[in-house]
Design goal:
The protein is an all-alpha fold and 196 residues long. The protein is built from six helices and no strands.
């Protein structure tokens, strides 16, 4: 059938603001990454303030999970001697709430960053496990410390295990940050800067 020359042709141009899902994905991922960074910072600040208030309440003794170099049974005993039921509840809230939400959100943000930037490259599979191991170690450390403080008598092995996980937590946190930076620094340059 011959087309009517007077019939207006439909424009094939896509409406403004539309695009393929692949084109929209980087922008959406960037927003999620920014939101994850902001939420992680807020959660870290809340947990830091909570632990700082516990330190003041115990006469300046830092909570064990804030010690970069770990701790021993004597230090745990000193902290326990200054803890009250109210302080134990606040410490537990830190372990089961803020110090769970922060590593989960932080690790998810780093994983999204790595997945977005290193899509289709082998380095992705070397970087992605780092934040995963970090969040597992951080949450395990919380559970170990709760078990140590709940025990009727301190076992050197349990304290040593908790201390080891505390040190590993800080090491893996730094490694997760480094993995995110490595993804950023090794991202391919798709386009050269415009010439003036």
């Amino acid at each position: 059938m011959a087309s009517n020359p007077h019939q207006p042709r439909r424009s094939r141009r896509a409406p403004a603001g539309s695009g393929s899902p692949a084109a929209r994905r980087p922008g959406r991922a960037a927003l999620l990454i920014i939101a994850g960074v902001v939420v992680s910072a807020v959660l870290a600040a809340i947990n830091g303030l909570q632990l700082a208030s516990l330190q003041r309440a115990t006469g300046g003794l830092a909570m064990p999970d804030t010690l970069l170099t770990g701790y021993d049974s004597d230090y745990i005993t000193r902290v326990q001697s200054r803890m009250t039921d109210e302080l134990y509840e606040r410490y537990g809230a830190s372990h089961y709430l803020w110090d769970v939400l922060f590593p989960v959100v932080f690790a998810a943000t780093v994983m999204l960053l790595i997945s977005t930037i290193t899509r289709g490259r082998k380095i992705r599979w070397f970087l992605l496990p780092v934040p995963v191991v970090y969040v597992v170690v951080d949450i395990t450390e919380n559970l170990l410390l709760e078990a140590v403080f709940a025990a009727e008598s301190l076992g050197p092995g349990a304290v040593a295990a908790a201390s080891t996980f505390t040190i590993l937590k800080f090491v893996l946190f730094a490694a997760a940050v480094a993995a995110g930076l490595a993804a950023l620094l090794t991202r391919p340059k798709n386009a050269a800067p415009p010439k003036r």
